[in-house]
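Data card: per-record layout.
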Amino acid sequence: MKRVQQWLLLGLTMGVFGGFFVMGNASTVTDNPAPDKAVTLALTPGTTVKQGAIVLARVSSAQTLGSGWRVKWDGKERPLFPQEAGTYEALLGVQADMAPGKHPLVLLDPEGHEVYRESLTVLDGRYPRQNITVSKSTAGLKPLPGELEAIQDLKTVLTATRHWDRSLMSPTPDCQISPFGVKRYHNGVYINDYHKGVDLRSPQGRPIKAITDGVVKVAAPQFRLHGGTVGLDHGQGLSSVYIHMSKVAVKTGQAVKKGDVIGYVGSTGFATGPHLHWGLYAGGVPVDPDQWIPVPRCR
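The structure for this 299-residue chain is written out next.
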């Protein structure tokens, strides 16, 4: 095959979140039917991240790229969505239990040819252990038929319209009592899982607000395991979930704005007392909300 040189510059590109600069070297791609246009790839916050991180892959081109361009990460392909600035973006999540070390991130053209390969270094999140005392009645709770499927559909939803921007807000003004990623123990026994969201010390009845604009995908007042639940699709691979509510204040399909009340704090479902558990998902992966919405730990 005739050698084709495609110069890709991963550098001097400012990320949209936090003003990070991503620096790198030009790479030569050979034996690929690369397009006759310069393409740049930038990663925010960079090529070294912690377990549980959110990664934004942004592709720029001198000419309009057709559909079908995508990024392959952690064995899955994610489409690139066109943005108003003329760039193309994919939102990716790093699993909290992903093995530390280098992992490949690959840019693919519509024919599936590899255009660029980058190594993303994943650092150990050093998540601590946490034990929770659970009553027999709570421990015996089982999900309703379709409950887990509804939550899974929310996590992996991928709609083309982007409703969110970087200025997210915490759903309540309260501190964290259980952070993301902690290894969970119930009554001293490891449950072989980690905390996939954040627990806030929110009192019974406190209004819960949407962290950013979105569309209600789940509005379930009586889930058995999750309790009162609201799930929001924020578009282009970002979604959020809020559980244990005493009351759900929205309906499925409803559009919400940042700061709208979507429900009220409770202790329904698998809960040991009133609090808000909420989670953030990027590209179908639970991620640490602290990266975008820092909330102090309770003292």
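Known properties of this structure: The longest helix spans residues 147-156. The radius of gyration is 21 Å.

See the next section for split statistics.
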